[in-house]
Amino acid sequence: MDYFFTEEQIMIRDLARQIAEERVVPVRAELDEKEEFPRDIMKVIAQADLFGLFVPEQYGGLGKGAVELCIAVEELSRACLGVSTSYAANALGTFPILLFGTDTQKNTYLPDIAAGKKLVAFGLTEANAGSDAAGIQTTAVKDGDDYILNGTKQWITNGSEAEIYTIIAMTDKAKGARGASAFIVEKGTPGFTFGKKEKKMGIRASVTCELVFDNCRVPKENILGKEGMGFIVAMKTLDQSRIGVGAQGLGVAQGAFEEAVKFAKTRIQFEKPIISFQAIQHMIADMAIEIEAARALIYSVARFIDSGAKDITKPSAMAKTFATDIGMKVTTNALQVMGGSGYMRDYPVEKMMRDAKILQIYEGTNQIQRNVICQNLIKEFSRMK
Amino acid sequence: MKIVVCIKQVPDTAEVKINPQTNTLMRDGVPSIINPYDLHAIEAAVAIKEVMDATVTVLTMGPPQAEVALRESIAMGADEAVLLSDRAFAGSDTWATAYTLSGALKKLGFDLIFCGKQAIDGDTAQVGPAMAEFLDIPHVAYVSKINSISDTVVEVRRMMDDGYDVVETSVPVLFTVVRELNQPRFASLKGKMRAKNAQIRKLTHADIELDEKDLGLSGSPTQVKNIFAPEMKKERVVFEGKPEEQVTELHNVLKSVKCI
Ligand SMILES: Cc1cc2nc3c(=O)[nH]c(=O)nc-3n(C[C@H](O)[C@H](O)[C@H](O)COP(=O)(O)OP(=O)(O)OC[C@H]3O[C@@H](n4cnc5c(N)ncnc54)[C@H](O)[C@@H]3O)c2cc1C
Ligand SMILES: Cc1cc2nc3c(=O)[nH]c(=O)nc-3n(C[C@H](O)[C@H](O)[C@H](O)COP(=O)(O)OP(=O)(O)OC[C@H]3O[C@@H](n4cnc5c(N)ncnc54)[C@H](O)[C@@H]3O)c2cc1C
Q1: Which of A19, A52, A53 is the closest to B186 by Cβ?
Q2: Which ligand minimizes its atom distance to the CA of A205?
């Protein structure tokens, strides 16, 4: 199907695809096996200007929006979700600065981010605060011109590889959700170290790491927005970035689907290519339908976001949930079509299936997304009366 | 420092089929690409620009369609592009090509010239060194590493069959480069956008002040009489039968020629 991308959007797609095919596909199995962060690929992505896609031109970026980001993420995800997670988490970490940063903060950080010189990470989750983000216990206590941070963030993508961290911490526990604030913390700040590096089921090229704050002094100029706005920063950020997770689901589904069809055309059983069996044909047809539906939803929600729409929470939750559920389903079925071969590491689909699982979990589990969607529906319906 | 990269647009040989009757390349409908070795030359030049004050000009002699290759070079980071195109250049052999290009180079000015080691459609590896001769400057072929570079002196590695030479040369100089030198970058998005609207400077034989009789077919001493695939002199044997029998036979043959 034609999504009527502009000439520039096609340029972005072709470039991301070329990088994916020439630089990611040949090494993805090895990166997965060795659980190795793809530093060289990040450099290639930086040189191609892809880190600057959604950064305004005045800060050295290309000034594009959600559609372009989704295009790049889809193409990278078609090759490897570990790589695309490293890339997309950079956007996640950058949105707080884009959305809430002062001119000084933007001038300080965005040019290096756009150029891909510095990677970014976003730190919200803690051991006791996953879905219930309001339960975070990391504190930021005002002390003269600084805040002093204490606490541990868990499972932070790009942790240890990133230079810039946007961190949510409690400035006033008594105020509950209104007592959180967002900070920019740079790697190397005294009192800021890295803890456990996780061993994961999938996206093993992406690094997931603990951030440890032990009396870490952060200048008060590094606060994003105002004190008490931490959760607003976090929620608005996730509203923007979630569509990217949906694009990851779409990309990995597309990648697995292509492998399955190629396989089914050449695998002979009962003296026929297995693609001639109706059971296989129907699975392939369903995959194609699901992928197209996910793509249609992703790009229409992305366009809605780019239109400057105010309330994007529900559509972005819908796009994330649907496309990542499709990502899981299609990778599972693609593997099934490939039988025992699909289960082997000789083919990329077992990795795709392992990788796809994370998409239903991070940036808000799909259960939480459904909660959010229905909460919004309840509000909408009560307004209708 | 002014760097000029000489590139050639070639048919993508991965896509070329051979006409079985005439044994010649069937070029119709075959996509054109930048000669792969030249990508390494462009990368070398653009990488130098990142570490010192330099400009990169890309030069090609070819038909008007070669503009596509020049735009791709700009997308990779070249500053300007020059297309040397004229009917008078048609039928040039390596001598006439090198002569024509050197005429353009004199006009453009240069400190460093980079070329790929050879073009994949002709495979002569002659044009680079020949240009250096016409320009009366030193050249180093098969460069696999640039050890150091300043405005006046460059030290490089030259790949040899049995190792490498370390060569120090004064500037101006011409280098032809091999794949080992670097990994060519992808075009960047900003580069691609710039390339779309970039002005391509066009030069004809009149612009570079060369006499038509020294150009194209009339300036080419080479006469192509016939093109043919070299005859296969080696004997070929195809074993038949069950795999075990074939292996036994192969084993016997290898033994008889004392390979094992
Ligand atoms: C690989 C990886 C990378 C990550 N990267 C980052 C990062 O860069 N930055 C960051 O801040 N965080 C990151 N996270 C954290 C991620 O966002 C959380 O894992 C996620 O929000 C879910 O939290 P949890 O894992 O604690 O699950 P829990 O909240 O403990 O949930 C467990 C289960 O209960 C369900 N559940 C919980 N509450 C409800 C409810 N009210 N209604 C219905 N069901 C519910 C959930 O859906 C889930 O199925 C990452 C996680 C992983 C695994
Ligand atoms: C980890 C592992 C351990 C194993 N251990 C053993 C073992 O100990 N001993 C042993 O003998 N084997 C073993 N196997 C082989 C296993 O039994 C086969 O993988 C299985 O029978 C499927 O065959 P296949 O992988 O060749 O898939 P294929 O037969 O190629 O099937 C590919 C796809 O086509 C579908 N398909 C095929 N034919 C039809 C049809 N007519 N109609 C509809 N759909 C069709 C299949 O359902 C599947 O989705 C093992 C396999 C694995 C992966």
Answers
A1: A19
A2: 1
Domains of chain B in sequence order:
2-219 (3.40.50.620)
A165 Cβ closer than 6 Å to some ligand 1 atom:
no
* Whether the Cβ atoms of residue A181 and residue A112 lie closer than 8 Å to each other: no
Residue type, B257: V
Residue B259 has pLDDT above 90, yes or no: no
pLDDT (tens digit per residue) in B15-45: 777 777 766 667 777 889 999 999 999 999 9
**Model ipTM value:** 0.84
Strands B173-177 and B112-116: parallel
Which residues fall within 8 angstroms of residue B1, CB to CB, at 6 or more apart?
A: B48, B52, B53, B54, B55, B111, B112, B151, B171
CB B65 within 8 A of CB B143: no
Domain A121-230, CATH: 2.40.110.10
What percentage of chain B exceeds 70 in pLDDT? 98
**A238-384 has which CATH code?**
1.20.140.10
Distance A212 CA to ligand 1 centre (A): 19
Residue B5, C-beta contacts closer than 8 angstroms, at least 6 positions apart: B38, B41, B42, B45, B56, B57, B58, B59, B73, B78, B113, B114, B115
DSSP B225: -
Give the fold, CATH level 3, of A7-119: Butyryl-Coa Dehydrogenase, subunit A; domain 1 (1.10.540)
Catalytic residue among A33, A227, A363, A380: A363
- B191 Cα to chain A: minimum distance (Å): 9
Q: For a pLDDT cut of 90, what percent of chain A falls above it?
A: 98
Ligand 1 centroid distance, CA of B151 (Å): 57
Are B189 and A18 an interchain contact pair (Cβ–Cβ within 8 Å)? no
Q: Which two tokens stand for residue A184?
A: 């920019």
